[in-house]
Amino acid sequence: MSAALETRNLTKRYGRRTALSDCTLTVPAGRVVGLVGPNGAGKSTLLQLACGLLTPSGGDIRVLGERPVSGSPRVAFVAQDTPVYPGFTVAEHLRLGAHLNPSWDSGYADRRIAALGLDPAQRAGSLSGGQRAQLALTVAAAKRPELLILDEPVAALDPLARRGFLQALMELAAESEVSVIMSSHLIADLERTCDHLIVLRGSRVGVAADVDDLLATHHRLTGRRRDPAAVSAGRVVIGERHTDVQSTLIVRSTAPIDDPEWQAGRLDLEDIVLAYLTEGQR
């Protein structure tokens, strides 16, 4: 399987409001993929379409080569509120997971709960936010899915709990062949955990590429003020800022930056994401 998720002109409308528009992308299999964008950009809509919880208004979507179906044993989903049942004990969550999922890995689930130091007899409602998130991740991972989808899973966690969750996610990805798609507003977290990035803006795809490729091909150019249209061929201007005497451009270029009239600087992932999110806002 070469792609975990493929969409072609995927569109989702709610009445007159368009939540996702003409979305075309390919998410490679075996990667940890970050999905970023402002509120209302369509992140949750895309993930719910991938889980089969929503149906498209137009276009096409394939998950692991098939049309998405809610409850597929090949896909696991952890929503933003890290859904667990407050009245169920930790052990009852694992028993329910085993009952509902033919591919359930009870040995993995038991080992992970023990490693986390969770009391199997403790009710989920009395767990901390970080512990509930870890329990939700354990239940999703023990299903042994081919694709794990996480919608803002660490949004409500404190820094320590967030670090623990992301460390567990990286360990899971390293030890198994699961593909992961995770949405988040926390770009620093995505830079530490993800090797592929999708930026959504205004219900459309701004950019989708491997993180290493994004870092290697995007540059900050600083020089005397000039028209961005004068930039050499093969360089796409993503963002620009000007003073009376100086221009600063964010460009994407596959060719080396060797123009002596420009001083080239490196960008981090947050710089690149913000450039795409503000593209066209001059």
Automatic annotation (TrEMBL):
<feature type="domain" description="ABC transporter">
    <location>
        <begin position="5"/>
        <end position="227"/>
    </location>
</feature>
<dbReference type="Pfam" id="PF00005">
    <property type="entry name" value="ABC_tran"/>
</dbReference>
<comment type="similarity">
    <text>Belongs to the ABC transporter superfamily.</text>
</comment>
<keyword id="KW-0547">Nucleotide-binding</keyword>
<protein>
    <submittedName>
        <fullName>ABC transporter ATP-binding protein</fullName>
    </submittedName>
</protein>
<dbReference type="GO" id="GO:0016887">
    <property type="term" value="F:ATP hydrolysis activity"/>
</dbReference>
<keyword id="KW-0067">ATP-binding</keyword>
<dbReference type="InterPro" id="IPR003593">
    <property type="entry name" value="AAA+_ATPase"/>
</dbReference>
<keyword id="KW-0813">Transport</keyword>
<dbReference type="GO" id="GO:0005524">
    <property type="term" value="F:ATP binding"/>
</dbReference>
<dbReference type="InterPro" id="IPR003439">
    <property type="entry name" value="ABC_transporter-like_ATP-bd"/>
</dbReference>
<dbReference type="InterPro" id="IPR027417">
    <property type="entry name" value="P-loop_NTPase"/>
</dbReference>
